[in-house]
Automatic annotation (TrEMBL):
Substrate binds at residues 11, 33, 60-69, 124, 185, 194, 214-215. This is Orotidine 5'-phosphate decarboxylase. One of its GO terms (molecular function) is orotidine-5'-phosphate decarboxylase activity. Catalyzes the decarboxylation of orotidine 5'-monophosphate (OMP) to uridine 5'-monophosphate (UMP). GO terms for cellular component: cytosol. GO terms for biological process: 'de novo' pyrimidine nucleobase biosynthetic process; 'de novo' UMP biosynthetic process. Keywords: Decarboxylase, Lyase, Pyrimidine biosynthesis. Homodimer. The gene is pyrF. Belongs to the OMP decarboxylase family. Type 1 subfamily.
C-alpha cells in the first residue's frame, strides 16, 4: 500500500501536466496537493480527475479573510470532496473557531466525515530577515508553537509548519494533532525558495505526520525514481 505520509504538490498549470505526473507516479503516490497555481488555472476538474483515480486530495488554498467569508468558502470547497483543506492561522481565533464549527455542522448535515481542517502557522519560506521586517517581537519558532496551540484550541485538526518546528509542536499539541510539513528536501537538493527545511526522514523524526514535497519530485529528471527514493528513505521511520 502507498505511504500516505508523502503528499506530492501538483504545482503545474495545466490539467494535461497534472495528469501526466499522476500517471508517471502511478501507485507509488496516493496523496496529492492541489494549490493556487493549478486550481486557479483549471478549477474543480482537477479534483474530479484525482477522485476518479482514487487519489486523496489536500486542497491548499490557504483561506484568509473574515470569519463568515472563510467559513462559507470552506463549505463550497468541502462540497468538492477533498480530504484536507486549510486556512491561515493568522486570521485569528474567531475565524478559526467559526470555520471548524461550520465544517463539522455542514458535514453532519451531508452525512459525511468532515475533511481535515488545518491552518498555516508561518510559511516555510519565511526567514529570519523576513521575520524581523514583519516587526514580530517573538522568536519565529515560539510564534509557530503559539499559533499551533491556538489552532488546536479553536477545534481544527492540525497545522502546516516547517519540519524545524515539528518537535516543539508535537510536544505542545499531542500525538493526534496533524503536523503537515512542506519545506522538505532530500539531502543535497536545492532549497529553492524554502528557508526552514529538513530531509524527509528528519521531518518525520521531528514529529511531522505528513510531508508535502513538490519540486524535488516533479522537477526531477525521473519523478517516479525521485519519489521512490524518498519513500525508501522514510520506510525505516515509524
Ligand atoms: O508554509 C508553506 C505552506 C505551503 N507550502 C506549499 O508546499 C509546496 C512546497 O513545494 P516545494 O516545491 O516542495 O517547495 C508548495 O506547493 C507550497 O505552496 C509551502 O511550501 N510552505
Amino acid at each position: 500500500m502507498a505511504d500516505e505520509r508523502i503528499i506530492v504538490a501538483l504545482d503545474v498549470r495545466t490539467l494535461a501536466e497534472a495528469k501526466a505526473l499522476v500517471d508517471q507516479l502511478g501507485d507509488s503516490i496516493i496523496f496529492y496537493k492541489v494549490g493556487m497555481e493549478l486550481f486557479y488555472a483549471v478549477g474543480p476538474q482537477i479534483i474530479t480527475y484525482l477522485k476518479s483515480k482514487k487519489k486523496k486530495i489536500f486542497l491548499d488554498l490557504k483561506l484568509h479573510d473574515i470569519p463568515n467569508t472563510v467559513a462559507e468558502g470552506l463549505i463550497s470547497l468541502m462540497k468538492l470532496g477533498v480530504d484536507i483543506f486549510n486556512v491561515h492561522a493568522s486570521g485569528g481565533f474567531t475565524m478559526l473557531n467559526r470555520a471548524a464549527q461550520r465544517v463539522k455542522e455542514e458535514a453532519a448535515k451531508m452525512g459525511i466525515e468532515p475533511p481535515k481542517l488545518i491552518a498555516i502557522t508561518v510559511l516555510t519560506s519565511v526567514n529570519a530577515d523576513d521575520w524581523a521586517k514583519l516587526g514580530m517581537q517573538m522568536p519565529l519558532e515560539e510564534q509557530v508553537v503559539r499559533l499551533a496551540k491556538m489552532v488546536k484550541e479553536a477545534g481544527l485538526d492540525g497545522v502546516v509548519a516547517s519540519p524545524k518546528e515539528a518537535a516543539k509542536i508535537r510536544q505542545a499539541c499531542g500525538k493526534d494533532f496533524m503536523i503537515v510539513t512542506p519545506g522538505v528536501r532530500p539531502a543535497g537538493a536545492s532549497a529553492d525558495d524554502q528557508s526552514r527545511i529538513a530531509t524527509p526522514a528528519q521531518a518525520l523524526r521531528n514529529g511531522a505526520s505528513q510531508l508535502v514535497i513538490g519540486r524535488p519530485i516533479y522537477k526531477a529528471d525521473d519523478p517516479r525514481a525521485a519519489a521512490k527514493k524518498i519513500l525508501a528513505e522514510i520506510a525505516v521511520v515509524d
